[in-house]
Amino acid sequence: MGKITEVTCMVVLLCGLAAIAEAEHVKYKDPNQPLNTRIKDLMDRMTLEEKIGQMVQIDRTVASQQVLKKYYIGSVLSGGGSEPLREASAKDWVDMVNGFQNGSLSTRLGIPMIYGIDAIHGHNSVYGATIFPHNIGLGATRDPDLAKRIGAATALEIRATGIPYTFAPSIAVCRDPRWGRCYESYSEDPKVVQAMTEIIPGLQGDPARKGFPYVAGKEKVAACAKHYVGDGGTTNGINENNTVIDRHGLLSIHMPAYYTSIIKGVSTIMVSYSSWNGKKMHANRELITGFLKTTLNFKGFVISDWEGIDRITSPPHANYTYSVLAGVNAGIDMIMVPRNYTEFIVDLTLLVKSNAVPMSRIDDAVKRILRVEFTIGIFENPLADYSLSDQLGSQVSSTELLKPTFCNMKSSVQTI
Predict the structure, then answer these.
(1) Choosing a second label site near 89 at 20 to 30 A (CA), which of 19, 96, 149, 159?
(2) Which percentage of the chain shows pLDDT scores above 70?
(3) Taking the model in full, what pTM does it have?
(4) Which residues belong to the active site?
């Protein structure tokens, strides 16, 4: 009996050591593994429920550790200037983001969520942040290097609040000054807008490999080129309306800045509320999957606008199951469903199980989302610290940035 017990104990010990070794060498947790190896290893372990959860982005007002854990939520955002509390400090922001992150890290696979915020002229939703001129003013300088430096300063302040992702820049080409969002456009000239996409390597860092999503460490953030495509060309400048233009016009006026953004490694692209010749962009498979992902070979993820798929129908949310079907099959990878996330999850799950949305479409979405998350480095550093807190509203960085501006503006005026 003694020998049998000894052998049994040895077997149990070896099995235990093997299990520990396996846990310590899970490929997706190993930063030394190739990116595609990590993505495949993680996806092979994920259930349908976990994959669909990754495709969901909810607003912070409905988020909690319990919600993120239960539904495997992939992303949280601050919508419309939403903040953890009035005049919140950098520390307050870090604590909030980390609180949500702890919910994600407590899931079975520990996949971190990605927090996003609008920072379109500085970290503009945050009290005490440096506010820079809006795009229309920056475009007037004709100074791409200034845009890049502003991007770098903005990224640093975003990271100071523990956030790794911003919904910027807007690369709309405003063709009618009656459009209420012309201030978000660098110019009516697509060449100027193309040049000012230099803000993207400012936010993300200079790409290590052209045409591939890239974020260069803890002082940089993932960027988002928006709104794809033609949002600045709507009839009579009516916001979220119809852009009536032939394919040549669309590609030559509204698309060039997207070509350049992709080359510069932009991580994500947001779809426009507007339509192209009567077809809602959120349901436009030809332009999202066909042109953006296939022709332009965009490797990051495509995100919807705030309740963007709801607006596929008129009135919005009139046939939500259809909207989910049309939006996801069009090629949108992450869906901004700030409040009704449970309805989205239920509908998409049923659509997959009935084969209306193919599993290959879900896998494409999740692969793209994970690619960006691994690139950001949040698997290795999911929780932010307070080390960059003093960079929020830094007078040194903003003063240095603006020193050459007036000289550049003068030079620009002389050449216009």
Answers:
(1) 149
(2) 89
(3) 0.91
(4) 305
